[in-house]
Structures are given as C-alpha cells and as structure tokens.
C-alpha cells in the first residue's frame, strides 16, 4: 500500500460560505471533529485540537485560509509542538460549488514524510482513514443541521 494521501469527498446542501465557516471556525470544528478547538483561521496561526477531556491534544498550524474556497492546516507534529520545520500532516479542505450545494474535497498528506517505520506508518495511516471515514459524514450531518435549523 502507498500510504501517500487520504482523499475523500462529500456533497452538502449548503453554500460555500457556510461550509467554509464550518471547516475553519474552531467553534464549529469542535462540534463535528475534535472535542475542543482553539485557533485563528489565519495563515501562520498556531492552535490546538483536543479530544476526550484533553486526554489527546494536538498542536496545529493554519497554512492557508482562502475564504470561501480553501482551508488547510498542519498537525500531528512528532513531539506534539507546532514546529514549522518539523514533518507533519497537512489537511486541506477544498470547497467547490456543486449544483445548489458544495462539494467538500478533503485531502490529508504527509504520511511518508513523517519518517515512521513501515508498521507505524501503516497503523497511523489506517487510523486516519478510519477517522476521516467517521468524521467526514459527521461534518455533512452538522452542516445539514445548521442550514435546516430555524
């Protein structure tokens, strides 16, 4: 297996602007992905994502914020601290108008560059595949709930 990147797509019946807000605003991100999120959607901004009562905390750095089309950040730093020269994973949300809604293209790259041994690479890649297969539909459900709320 290559373990180079994870690519997923989902269509949601919401505008680019709504979807961009959901993938780039920490208050929204904490509703569909992490339990807590703290960052500014500005390139270079450093923040964190936390799960399970802060049992698992990941540093993250915003790489691109081009509303309403693209939001990208780095995370999974080797020592848990955001470091611009350290290898890390890059998550990109590309938003494309599609009919009356938005196509969300999620890409996560950088697995091979992490320098993990083959077994660790396979494990991490598999966990991220499983994670995105769970969280991307949650993102869609969250967006749907937002736009259908009175």
TrEMBL record:
Domain Activator of Hsp90 ATPase homologue 1/2-like C-terminal: 13-143
Residue ranges that the Swiss-Prot or TrEMBL entry lists as coiled coil: none
UniProt xrefs under SUPFAM superfamilies: Bet v1-like (SSF55961)
Domain of life of the organism encoding this protein: Bacteria
Entry's family note: Belongs to the AHA1 family.
Protein name: Activator of Hsp90 ATPase homolog 1-like protein
